[in-house]
Amino acid sequence: MRSGVSEAEPILDRNGLNFSWLLKLRWSSIAGQTATILAVHFLLDIEVPLVPLFAVVGVELLSNILCAVWFQRRPRVHEWQLAAVLALDIGLLTGLLYFTGGPFNPFSFLYLVNIALAAVALHAQWTWMLVALALLSFGLLPLTDFWPLPLGHLTPEQTVNLHRQGTWVAFGVAATFIVHFLWRVTGALAQRERELHQTRVRAAQKERLASLATVAAGAAHELATPLGTIALAAKELERELGALGDLQAIEDARLIREQVARCRLILDQMGVGLGKSEEQSLESVTLSALFDEVLTGVRDAPPVHLEIDPAVAGARLRLPPRAMAQALRSLVTNAQDASPPRQPVVVTAVIEDRSLAVEVRDRGPGMTGDVLRRIGEPFFTTKPPGHGMGLGLYLTRAVVEGLGGELAIDSQPALGTRARVIVPAQIDPDRASDASQSPIDPDRR
């Protein structure tokens, strides 16, 4: 299973995506029109009126520059603005045709490009309006005093061949523009839908976490009184058993008090973290101090083998230490639950590219592919009833992704499981202490 969240660009709406690709298509159109005019004039030796043609292309160039500048400042696009740009393109194409043979110019095929773009990008009413404009523009060309192409120096057969070749080129250009635009816009819209889906998933996840936080706050409040009563009763029971000399019963009473104290510690940690955003909870903490917090309350068996390079043990990181410690502690306790009693759980921590990378490995039975696909879902657990609620890994993933990090879990049956966490961390240039003053004992637990 792999999950992660990256910083995403602002999500454009459908009209914004269509407008951005229309601008790119118009740049290609300007380049193609310029190349075609020059090729016809100099390579085919057909004297077309360069000044009025380049004036029309210049209007298209200026309009695209203005549209691009406006779009950078106001990316919110209305449908009528798209329609206006396409209508302008129909008018400009009509101007180019007017100076290059009118309705007899084979590049009149390019009206279909604007109609196809309108059909994809606009609703029906705008599309039909542009269809009507294109039909009107092309229909009026024969009624105007358009400029015929000077083909008098060609034979009739050469004229027919030239028209056939021009029709073939125009058809190819129209088909290429239409397919390219449709392909890119469809891909952009699909990417937008994926981003929106991820946004909805994150929003649903935050709602679940908010619900869990509410439940946790209520549980912390409600459990404080009975835990205090249990602790007091266990203390009195231990005193009375001490008078009787029942050592086993005394040890049991002491164990009750220790577990109650552990429960109170967990509730205190929950209370400190509730209501704080990730930004508010950012603190400067050394790597070694972070893992001291991670291993607080972790049981002694199976042992935890901690591996941190002494050269970075004193490095100071800025991150939410309590949330991060709880997330990593959950991975460690899960690995302990899966491991045989004498097989150590190996925890390694390194600093890579201004990120904290932590890996937790166990030698347990591993997980099948079906279980691996579901692992991390809320309330899904492979533990026996009464030994887990299926929330630990879900909350861990929520914390890691909330920090802009990634959680990856790899597992193979009979070989064990590896959980790898990578989270961005602001790394202070100064160390809290020299490495020799904060050694990390690999067998500290």
Task: Tag the structure with descriptive keywords.
single chain; 445 residues; alpha+beta; Heat Shock Protein 90; disordered N terminus
Q: Please, could you describe this protein's structure?
A:
- The protein is α+β, with helices and mostly antiparallel strands.
- The chain folds into two domains: 192 residues, no CATH class; 155 residues, Heat Shock Protein 90 (2-Layer Sandwich).
- 59% of the residues lie in helices and 12% in strands.
- The strands form two sheets. The chain has a six-stranded mixed β-sheet with strand order 1-7-8-6-5-3, with helices on one face.
- The longest helix is centred in the middle third of the chain and has 89 residues.
- The N terminus is likely disordered.
Strand residue content = 5-15%
Main sheet strand line-up: 1-7-8-6-5-3
Low-confidence parts = 1-11, 431-442
Number of strands: 9
Q: Tell me the domain tally.
A: 2
Q: Work out the radius of gyration.
A: 35 Å
The amount of helix comes to 55-70%
- The whole-number mean of residue pLDDT values reads 78
Q: Mind summarizing the main beta sheet?
A: 6 strands, mixed
**Helix tally?**
11
How does the helix and strand content classify structurally?
alpha+beta
Q: Order of SSEs, N→C? A: EHHHHHHHEHEEHEEHHEEE
Regarding quaternary structure, what we see is single chain
Q: Compute the separation of the termini in Å.
A: 29 Å
Name the shape in a single word: elongated
Secondary structure topology:
Elements: E1 2-4, H1 14-43, H2 50-73, H3 79-98, H4 111-121, H5 124-140, H6 156-244, H7 247-273, E2 283-286, H8 287-294, E3 304-308, E4 315-319, H9 321-338, E5 345-352, E6 355-361, H10 369-374, H11 392-402, E7 406-412, E8 416-424, E9 426-431
Parallel strand pairs: 3-5
Antiparallel strand pairs: 1-7, 2-4, 4-9, 5-6, 6-8, 7-8
Helix pairs in contact: 1-2, 1-6, 2-3, 3-4, 3-5, 4-5, 4-6, 6-7, 8-9, 9-11
